[in-house]
Amino acid sequence: MNWKRIKAVGKLLLLFGTPLLVVLGLFGSGVYVGNLYRHGVTSFEKEWLGLDVDVAPPHGESDDDDKKDDDDKKDEDDKKDDERREEPKPEPVPEPAALTPPPVEPPTPAPAPQVDPLEGPLAGRLGVPVSVEVKVLVDDALIEQHPDWIDYVQRTLSEASSIYEKQFGVTLELASVGRWGVPTAGMSSGELLEDVEARPREAAQLIVGFTGRPLDDRTSGKAFTPPEDGPYNGSAAVVYATRQRRNPHVRGLLHEVGHLFGALDITDPAAPGYQSGSWMSYAPVAPDHAPWIDPNNRARVLARKDKPFAPAGAMTAAPEAPPESPSEESPK
């Protein structure tokens, strides 16, 4: 190769190589400067240009340091998670057991009445239906003993009505129930009867006072009893409680309403009605004794059951019963 050719090639290399070297130098310088100031550059791009880039760590801190920091942070977070998982959990509080109400015993059923068969005219009288409207007054002593006193009166009259319907063909209908404002003590059964009789009956035919007070003259009630040939039946009565019975007022109510229809007391212990426990007698009977009335008093009620009831003030009180043994509580 001659010298001219070598010189021409040198010129070409210089012409094309010099710019290439400059470009490569600039590129290398840019890479170096970019790596040196990459924290500032990436911060500028992220904060000012809004680019979604990761900010590089400052110069001198390597990615390994970042990774180590991340690993340390992760280890610390994992440790905290483990500590939280290892924290003792509170013991579950058992729910209180549901309170089971005590079983409610069904009420003792009323004993079925003992009904004797009838023949002749009395059987015909039994078939004559009679309905009687009854107003009941209740004193404070009974209300204290029976907070459900209205229901108590309804149950008592309903039970008595069922017995009267079977024995006499008479239905007792409850017309109304009211409070009876009488003194708790100091009044005899006769005075109580006069008080009841003086009160308005309204639309009812009978007015009856129920009291829960103790027996004050060893009787369990008082009623106006019509004479055998009287034109009216009685219309007012007072009923005391006969204690230690399933329903303390039923037997007394049967007894006193019987008086209103003309039935009479049986006081002779030798009388068949006394010995058999007629509710018109003073005989002590068991609480489960079947309600029964003697034939003579049943005939009296059947004969008078459809007579009108006396207007207020037309009757006089039935005579007081003879004293009984203090150990007995029997109906009058």
Indicate the topology.
Layout lengths: L2 H34 L1 H10 L15 H24 L34 H6 L3 E10 H6 L3 H20 L1 E11 L8 H10 L7 E5 L10 E3 L12 E4 L10 H11 L11 H4 L19 H10 L28
Helix pairs in contact: 6-8
Task: Describe this protein's structure.
With 332 residues, the chain is α/β, with parallel strands linked by helices. The chain has ten helices and five strands; from the N terminus they run H-H-H-H-E-H-H-E-H-E-E-E-H-H-H. The chain has helices at 3-36, 38-47, 63-86, 121-126, 140-145, 149-168, 189-198, 250-260, 272-275, 295-304; strands spanning 130-139, 170-180, 206-210, 221-223, 236-239. Strands 2-1-3-5-4 form a five-stranded mixed β-sheet. Helix 6 (149-168) packs across helix 8 (250-260). The longest helix has 34 residues, at 3-36. It is rod-shaped and about 180 Å long. It starts with a helix and ends in a 28-residue tail after the last helix. The relative contact order is 0.10.
Q: What are the main properties of this structure?
A:
single chain, 332 residues, alpha/beta, 5-stranded mixed beta sheet, 10 helices, 10% strand, rod-shaped, disordered C terminus
Could you provide a short overview of the structure?
The protein is α/β, with parallel strands linked by helices. Helices cover 41% and strands 10% of the residues.
